[in-house]
Amino acid sequence: MDSRRLEHLIAVAExxxxxxxxxxxxxxxxxxxxxxxxxxxxLEVVLFDRHAKGATLTSVGRVxxxxxxxxxxxxxxxxxxxxxxxxHDHGHLVIGTGSFPATAILPDALATLxxxxxNVSSRVQSGDSEQLLAALYREEMDFFISNVRGLPQDDAxxxxxxxxxxxxxxxxxxxxxxxxxxxxxxxxxxxxxxxxRVPPQLDKEWYDACGLPPGQLPxxxxxxxxxxxxxxxxxxxxxxxxxYPSALKDKLVQQLLVPLTVTDAFKIIGQxxxxxxxxxxxxxxxxxxxxxxxxxxxxxxMASAL
Length: 306
Fold this sequence. Notes:
Layout: H1 3-15, H2 18-24, H3 29-43, E1 48-51, E2 54-57, H4 59-86, E3 91-97, H5 99-116, E4 120-126, H6 129-137, E5 143-147, E6 157-166, E7 168-171, H7 185-188, E8 193-195, H8 200-209, E9 220-223, H9 227-235, E10 240-243, H10 251-256, E11 258-260, E12 269-277, H11 284-300
Parallel strand pairs: 3-4, 3-5, 8-9, 8-10
Antiparallel strand pairs: 1-2, 5-12, 6-12, 7-10, 7-11
Helix pairs in contact: 1-2, 1-3, 1-4, 2-3, 5-11
GO molecular function: DNA binding; DNA-binding transcription factor activity
Organism: Noviherbaspirillum saxi
InterPro entries: HTH-type_LysR_regulators (IPR050950), LysR_HTH_N (IPR000847), LysR_subst-bd (IPR005119), WH-like_DNA-bd_sf (IPR036388), WH_DNA-bd_sf (IPR036390)
């Protein structure tokens, strides 16, 4: 059904006269009459009673006119919303994130999005890579940003590395290990280890670097997704925090935790990437946010390792 015919229908109903309606629609009267006749044939109903003074809606015609107004109103809303989406002035985003991106990668980009596009709403969902991947497959989010080391290869995914960084060891000032000239991985095992979730494929390499006998694993005293919580625990105990330096941007935290140089330490390299479904076209809002995110990483220098 042609929307123009619905407009013609409403014009005749409001003018009550084919001649006036034709002038309003910039049509000849015969062309307008043909348009209404075609609409009546499509619907298989009579919409107007024609008479010498003009045209009057039938009972069916009155119902159709009300429905036509609603349809045209929805169509105008659709066109407006698409226009807003294209200008990034409307839309909704669901972003998945791991603990490190939530602390070090996303805040600046989200702040820019809110400042430049206040009508775009966002929801951030946290989790580890497995949880985020499952949610992405269920199409519950637009994309996620997380450490992708160990993420399964899948042609259904588009994975774009945004940032790479080596994890380091941090302790409170005055920690006993700071008195050692060259602390080694085995020395770390005398103290509680706290960290974000370690990808399973790193376990064996990391444990081998600690010089443990086969089958004996170091105990992670605290493992979690909340970096601020882990930071606070490390500042108030002899725990050793294993995290990425960019997660300790806060100057107060930098005063409360100091890096611990460990001889022959196993290097834990985080590969933080944006992951989305290959066959799903990003929304305009998602495309805009991804652009903002990359610009933010460039400005902060975090994209330099790519």
